[in-house]
TrEMBL record, chain A:
Residues 201-485 form the Hydantoinase A/oxoprolinase domain. GO terms for cellular component: cytosol. The keyword Hydrolase applies. Residues 4-179 form the Hydantoinase/oxoprolinase N-terminal domain. The keyword Hydrolase applies. This is N-methylhydantoinase A. InterPro entries: ATPase_NBD (IPR043129), Hydant_A_N (IPR008040), Hydantoinase_A (IPR002821), Oxoprolinase-like (IPR045079). Keywords: Hydrolase. GO terms for biological process: glutathione metabolic process. Its EC number is 3.5.2.14.
From TrEMBL, chain B:
It comes from Kaistia hirudinis. This is N-methylhydantoinase B. GO terms for molecular function: 5-oxoprolinase (ATP-hydrolyzing) activity; N-methylhydantoinase (ATP-hydrolyzing) activity. It holds the Pfam family Hydantoinase_B. GO terms for biological process: glutathione metabolic process. It is an enzyme of class 3 (hydrolase). PANTHER family: 5-OXOPROLINASE RELATED (PTHR11365), HYPOTHETICAL 5-OXOPROLINASE (EUROFUNG)-RELATED (PTHR11365:SF23). Keywords: Hydrolase. The keyword Hydrolase applies.
Length: 674, 573
């Protein structure tokens, strides 16, 4: 139901997946990313892989992009001025006083997005309870504006102390800036985030002001190009906190998309987990330069409410995806003490691993895998022919340095990479008090299926599900992204029935605010609310999903308190006899996209079965592996085997069996305990 | 008669396996796995702790040790605790009767300052870890700062012996073979002004140690005891080589660094001290024997923290950004003399042990600068500028307490201006947001701003210090522990000095009282606590700072025009 096109821009490739409602087909494609004009890569993917008729009837275009993120990382954004409360213009530079690299004596905080001479103060002060301590001196705004205009700023961020508790002064400043003739973008902190913590809120507000124009231009250009190709539906972009928003909404709240890069994969994992009824699932997204892992419980990714990009905090919901610098391109090297390390430096797309024959000479993880035969005979579906001699030549110097042969060194490169990936996976699950051994592994990304059985072995997991379109899984995940809008506000007060009524008043405001943001509510929406609660005196809180009756929380204070205590017990193993307090109220409106049926048709022609010698980690020796196209697996396939498909290669070690499931997934089961 | 013969301290020289039998790949995998186990301990602790001192200020250390009490791995936490935990483990185990008297499920509490290196508030929980067959494979240990342990005040700068500083747990089993020792538990709860927090944090330390033990057991089981112990030796050898390779590049010689404490907390006399760094090949010896006698006030630094300060200084410099383990400590020898302020003996007061220790780190850099000035930065503000506050809330009658370190300017180095952040001895710590403070504490902040002209001038300038003004809205008691107020942070290679730290209270009538180091000082409603943290020293002659950089500093307001003309006249030519 509802034809849709998903395009996910990665560092190396732009991935496309579309779903045709009429045929029930899901089709994938891949083109190189165009770093200087990413929309051109999108256009190339769409025009190259999607028939005009499908483009014209598509209802949704779903997009994952790192345009905003890259603007931030590369510091290519607007010239921003910042207006703060008198006495506090350095909040952005002082931060929280910590070092991102704690063992680095020479670490220095990055240059703030707004340099000091563009951070100006106005006279006003609001207290934590929202009462006005010092009224806004309107006369103090004009000089600040004049100075910023003289500097030619493109946009102005306004972040006043305690504005989360009372936004009146921020609104008044906005009015005065407009009255004073400022025509550029104005970002008010209380509209960006209703939560307390002035540094984090200022950082988020400034990021919004910094990326907004660039994001807006990009989205407008892209939408225009799509229309030229015949697209007539709704364009959506993924949110960091899962779900999607319309391009128009994203132009208003671009910071909500900044951390959306790895979200599509987690989104797809949630959908698969729901379809297959998997309670606990850990993802392993192995790309060229990074490894992302997320925990999916009962079909839901874990959402956090503050993230960090390049040492800058962002106060917005984001899916908890942990990244480490380890992937197919990670380079093995010898450190100053003579030990072999793998990554975080990567061969990237250019020159790429040595075995790709594009000029790379350093040993990447992919070279080790190729040398060991894990990628099969060498003709990758992407058109690359593996050069085994180059792989070997790249590994030799490292092997000599640690006085091992090339075979042992190659095995070592994979073991070291797998162990650091496994540690990240262990940490996302153990943090929730869960044991990864009882969970299912979902590998995807170009090198995910290659590492699957190794990772499962590291974590003693017995079941792996390789999703359909594993190499393009993030783009597939995009197709299921419901439209979501959310808003939150901090109001610290004891949990009691009277204050719950206050919370309900705030909740009604938040729902009204969300409704005012966009025109996306035509699909029949679902509202939900959360309360952030904690024991009085604590700093950290738990976010509790609360049932709604209409727009109001359907709980009494006692019921809310009991739900909090139960969650606290589950998470921390005990409770306290302290007063519970409300910290923040969160409102979310979700407009589900029409559900889609799934029928996977393999794009590959079925080639003949062949035998190839490869290294088995389970057996600790080289042995014959069957090489089988994924589409040819109609009955249980007993490892060792190498399973090929168009965008990824699955390494199925000995003692593992693969079987195609009802939804097109491959179920890998460990045959016996070793 | 007290034996004053200097004592030489070396790290982990024992061997339990054979590095030659380890393969480099297993070594790297074991190193990852041990660090991951330590990180899991830390997460369990942070998520279950009750007090912000643990979960926000990260005033703790978590680590895993082998049976020889050599550091296998630790999670990023408080650097100053890093090098002390092995002493806690050694003493805790010795005091309960040695290795023969520890059993699965035991948890030992230990906080005797001369064994932990800290004040009594820093309490270690030590958990012996066994495999199924009963073989001891090592220890997991967590030392954490407890909010209150029934000293004379919640935080003290004026104690005269250790017994004023808090309750002592000289190695007692809070759990025996997995069973809670209720007698000890009730003692713990009875000996605190904030029993709920203390009980909660003790529980969090126990949970963290258990989580670590489970992960540690898994690592050893996975590789097998023999292969594991070979890999550990290879890992230590590797860390040792990393640090040695650094010191080989520094010219041999004896270099003396000098520091000075403002006072001992009882009298106001400054206390100069010196630390000599002796480099011979790749060996480093830190000589603390030429330091003053044990002080009458609490600025004595017990030996474990003297050694830790040395380890922190060296591993920050020569560890290439890695989490240190025992191997990194091996090239470092520390020499102390009993009866001095860096080797005090019971019952010398040591509540402010951290202040000489953190200054010693920079004194060591001051010495190394004489060998190779490009290797180190100029001095920072030189303190963590701590304030602890408490009182009784007017509206509710509830007691409240809070406390925080504060950032200072950091020293410039060859190639970079200094930033502004917490002292390197608390490099992972964050201070609270103003909006969080104001939502719970009775004050309004008037300002938190980088202080103009506070940075040391130089080719590379130091980072600016900060002015914090807390206007109290209710009567509040404070303890301030702010050092280096009498001496300006030093520059290097011709770089200038910076503004020193200061702390005082401005009363509503305008009267100002300077109180850098004071205990239980009443700040009445409407008075303002003014904390002015120091800047970082400059590096290289100011005359060589580029004109553009001077102009940019002027434009930003980091410096005034008068300051610029005085220090960088060339920029106005």
């Amino acid at each position: 139901m509802a034809t849709r096109i998903g395009v996910d821009i990665g560092g190396t490739f732009t991935d496309l997946v579309y779903y045709d409602d009429e045929t029930g087909e899901t089709v994938e494609g891949k083109v190189p990313t165009v770093p200087h004009a990413p929309e051109e890569g999108v256009v190339a993917a769409v025009s190259g892989h999607v028939p005009r008729a499908v483009i014209e009837k598509a209802e949704f275009f779903l997009h994952g992009t790192t345009v905003g993120l890259n603007a931030l990382l590369e510091r290519r954004g607007a010239k921003v001025g910042l207006i703060t409360t008198a006495g506090f213009r350095d909040v952005l530079e002082i931060r929280r006083g910590d070092r991102a690299e704690m063992y680095n004596l020479f670490w220095r905080q990055p240059e703030p997005l707004v340099p000091r001479h563009l951070r100006l103060e106005v006279s006003e002060r609001v207290k934590a309870d929202g009462s006005v301590y010092r009224p806004l001196d309107e006369a103090s705004v004009a000089p600040a504006l004049a100075a910023l205009q003289a500097e030619g700023v493109d946009s102005i961020a306004v972040c006043l102390i305690n504005a989360y508790a009372n936004p009146a002064h921020e609104l008044a400043v906005e009015k005065l800036l407009r009255a004073g003739g400022f025509a550029g973008g104005i970002s008010l902190s209380h509209k960006i985030s209703g939560e307390y913590r002035e540094y984090e809120r200022t950082s988020t507000t400034v990021i919004d002001a910094f990326v907004r124009a660039r994001m807006s231009n990009y989205l407008k250009r892209l939408d225009g190009r799509l229309r030229e190709l015949g697209f007539r539906g709704t364009s959506l972009i993924t949110r960091s906190g899962s779900g999607s928003m319309t391009f128009a909404e994203a132009e208003e709240r671009p910071f909500e998309t900044i951390m959306s890069g790895p979200v599509a994969g987690a989104q797809g994992a949630s959908e698969i987990a729901t379809q297959l009824g998997i309670e606990g699932l850990v993802t392993a997204d192995v790309g060229g330069t990074s490894f992302d892992t997320a925990l999916i419980l009962n079909g839901q990714p874990q959402v956090l409410y503050e993230g960090v990009i390049d040492n800058m905090p962002i106060q917005t919901p984001w899916v908890d995806v942990r990244s480490i610098g380890s992937g197919g391109g990670s380079i093995a090297h010898i450190d100053v003490g003579g030990l072999m390390r793998v990554g975080p430096r990567s061969a990237g797309a250019a020159p790429g691993p040595a075995c790709y024959g594009k000029g790379g000479t350093e040993p990447a993880m992919t070279d080790a895998a190729a040398f060991l035969g894990m990628l099969g005979p060498g003709k990758l579906a992407s058109g690359i022919n593996l050069d085994f001699a180059k792989a070997k030549a790249a590994i030799e110097p490292v092997a000599a340095a640690i006085r091992q042969d090339v075979e042992t060194t190659a095995i070592g490169i994979l073991r070291i990479a797998a162990s650091s990936m496994a540690n990240a996976m262990r940490e996302v699950s153990v943090e929730q008090g869960l044991d990864p051994r009882a969970m299912v592994l979902l590998p995807f990304g170009g090198a995910g299926p290659l590492m699957a059985t190794l990772l499962a072995d590291e974590l003693k997991m017995n079941r792996i599900v390789v999703p359909p379109l594993a190499g393009n899984f993030s783009a597939w995940g995009l197709l299921g992204a419901d439209m979501v809008q959310s808003s939150a506000r901090t109001r610290i007060m004891d949990l009691g029935d009277a204050n719950l009524a206050v919370a309900n008043g705030i909740l009604a405001d938040l729902f009204a605010e969300v409704a005012a943001r966009g025109d996306h509510l035509e699909h029949g929406t679902v509202r939900s609310a959360r309360l952030d609660l904690r024991y009085k005196g604590q700093e950290h809180w738990l976010s509790i999903d609360t049932p709604l009756a209409g727009d109001a929380i359907a709980w009494t204070a006692d019921e809310a308190g009991a739900a909090f205590a139960a969650e606290y017990l589950r998470t921390f193993g005990g409770t306290m006899s302290e007063v519970v307090e409300i910290v923040s109220i969160r409102a979310t409106v979700r407009a589900p996209l029409p559900r889609r049926e799934q029928v996977f048709k393999a794009a590959d022609a079925v080639a003949g079965d062949e035998i190839f010698d490869a290294y088995s980690f389970e057996e600790g020796r080289r042995m014959p592996f069957r090489v089988v196209p994924r589409a040819a697996i109609t009955k249980p396939l007993v490892g060792p085997a190498i399973v090929t498909e168009s965008t990824a290669t699955l390494y199925l070690d000995a003692h593992w069996t693969a079987e195609t499931g009802a939804k097109g997934e491959l179920n890998l089961i460990r045959a016996e305990a070793k | 008669m007290l034996d004053r013969t200097p004592v030489l301290h070396r790290a982990g020289v024992a061997r339990s396996g054979d590095a030659a039998k380890a393969d480099p790949i297993t070594t790297e995998v074991v190193r990852h796995a041990l660090n991951s186990a330590a990180n899991q301990m830390k997460r369990a602790l942070v998520r279950t702790a009750f007090s912000p001192v643990i979960y926000e200020v990260l005033d703790f250390a978590v680590a895993i040790y082998d049976p020889q009490m050599r550091l296998l791995a630790q999670a990023p936490s408080l650097p100053m605790f890093m090098g002390t935990l092995n002493f806690c483990v050694e003493e805790a185990v010795k005091n309960v009767g040695g290795e023969a008297n520890v059993f699965p499920g035991d948890m030992i509490m230990y906080n005797w300052p001369y064994g932990t290196g800290s004040h009594p508030q820093d309490l270690a929980v030590v958990n012996p870890v066994f495999l199924e067959d009963g073989e001891l494979i090592g220890y997991t240990a967590i030392k954490g700062h407890w909010l209150d342990i029934a000293g004379k005040d919640p935080y003290c700068t004026d104690t005269v012996d250790v017994f004023q500083e808090g309750t002592i747990y000289p190695g007692v089993k809070i759990y025996k073979r997995g069973e809670l020792n209720d007698d000890i538990y009730r003692m713990v709860v009875a000996n605190s002004r904030v029993p709920k927090f203390v009980a909660g944090d003790l529980n969090a330390q126990v949970v963290g140690c258990r989580v670590g033990a489970t992960s540690f057991q898994e690592v050893v089981r996975r590789f097998g005891r023999e292969a594991f112990s070979h890999a550990v030796e290879a890992m230590f050898d590797h860390g040792e080589r990393v640090v040695r390779s650094y010191f080989e590049a520094i010219p041999d010689g004896r270099y003396v660094g000098r520091g000075e404490m403002d006072s001992n907390g009882i009298t106001d006399d400054p206390i100069p001290f010196e630390v000599a760094v002796e480099i011979e090949g790749s060996n480093v010896r830190l000589d603390f024997t030429h330091v003053p006698e044990t002080q009458a006030g609490p600025v004595n630094c017990p030996v474990p923290s003297t050694i830790s300060a040395s380890r922190v200084a060296i591993s920050m410099l020569a560890g290439y950004g890695e989490a240190p383990h025992e191997g990194h400590f091996r090239p470092v020898e520390v020499l102390t003399r009993p009866g001095t302020m860096f080797h005090p003996l019971p019952p010398a007061p040591c509540f402010l042990y951290g202040w000489p220790a953190l200054q010693a780190i920079e004194v060591i850099y001051n010495a190394i600068a004489k060998a190779l000035p490009t290797a180190v930065p100029a001095q920072s503000g030189g303190c963590i500028a701590s304030v602890v506050y408490w009182g009784t809330r007017q509206a509710t009658g509830e007691p409240w307490a809070d406390g925080s370190p504060h950032p200072t300017g950091q020293g410039a180095w060859n190639g970079g201006d200094g930033g502004t952040m917490l002292h390197i001895s608390e490099s992972a710590t964050r201070f609270s947001p103003i909006e969080v403070w104001e939502s719970k504490n009775p004050w309004i902040m008037d300002k938190m701003a980088l202080a103009q002209d506070s940075c040391g001038p130089g080719t590379w300038r130091g980072g600016p210090g900060i002015d914090f003004h807390f206007r109290m809205t209710e009567d509040t008691y404070i303890t301030t522990a702010v050092e280096r107020t009498k001496n300006a942070p030093w520059g290097l290679v011709g770089g200038g000095t910076a503004r020193p730290n200061g702390a005082g209270v401005r009363f509503p009538n305008g009267h100002f009282v300077s109180i850098p180091k004071t205990t239980r000082f009443l700040v009445p409603k409407d008075a303002v606590l003014e904390l002015s943290t120091g800047g970082g020293g400059g590096y290289g002659p100011p005359a060589e700072r580029t004109k553009e950089a001077v102009e940019s500093d002027l434009k930003a307001g980091y410096i005034s025009e008068a300051f610029a003309r005085a220090n960088y006249p060339h920029a106005f030519e």
